[in-house]
Amino acid sequence: MNIGDKVRFLHEVGGGVISGFQDKHTVLVQDEDGFDIPMPITEVVVVNTDAYNLPKEQKKASGAKTNAAKQGMTSQAGEEITGTSLKAQLSASLDREEDEGWEPCERPVTFKAAPVERKGGDVLNLTLAFVPADAKSISTTEFDTYILNDSNYHVQLLYLHAEGQRWNLLYQGVVAPWGRVCVDNFDHSVLGSMEELCLQAMAWKDNKPFEIKPALSTRLKLDCTKFYKLHTFHASEHFDRPCWEVPAIREDNPVRPLQVDAERLQEALSSPSQPTPVPPAKAVRPQEAKAPKSAPRQGEVIEVDLHIAALLDTAAGLSPADILLVQMKEFRRVMDENIRRPGQRIVFIHGKGDGVLRRNLLQELKYRYKQCSWQDASFREYGYGATQVTVHNAPKS
Q: How far apart, in whole angstroms, are the C-alpha atoms of residue 384 and residue 352?
């Protein structure tokens, strides 16, 4: 048994060429991949001593072109594949990538799992979701806007905000089936530009036949005062935080707010109509007199939002003192209307802020409306930014 002899393992699969001796009982067998395997001399059998006395590199060079020609195969790089094992070819490919500056972990991932379709998902349902970053500071926190796709379709989206008669594109992209995508982030300073939104969508499926959907476009009008109210935001299966979900498309149809047709309204106003007959007046006893429609029902809580966005269309050009003056004027108006209704409860939503508005409210209650008591409103519904006032005995006339 000499160096260069071709051997096979006696009780294991494999073999190779003897490349050396580790000791007098152990021989080093070089396999076809160039690895030296220590094996007991008693576990190897010499199969040929004449044809394998050539160096391994020379044997590879002499047989590479023959094997490649027989197999008629090339590698991904266009190079001929030798007769080496798959393990050796993979190792050579990795070595080549390292030489070219590639790392195996940097190779692009091309596999994409097919989306799992759900029953009832062949109708298009899209929802806008507004998620506060900190629900405990609802009057100062930022919000993330998501679009939820509850369908088996891929959806190409355009998300726009109105600016006068024109529109601003805030997001363009694709949302996967039963997925969601974040399309905007904003704070309270831009609520004035979010009263009217537009969502446009086109839907399709990948690698399978599907029922074609028409391109959809829907406009939504938001009540931006709800962004100041904690009870607007509720738990959802889509998020681990409270959110406000606004349907945009339901069962392939856009969800449209009530809109007035200006032409039909003008036509109705200009067309002649018959006067409505007035029934004869009926005497009403004092005890039968009804309260005006604006009067609250017994036990009903009046909710008053004192945020300037709820009182004025715009606060542009107003100083903080001017804003406070408007808010206090609304507070006094509501209090004066209800001061003669013992038991009436009024919730004033003023927000947390720096506490200036709340201090002014308490000052007025303490000196001007002494017959009333007050306390913090329900934290569950309003957070820290609301005060509840209860009217007790009406003042003597």
A: 6
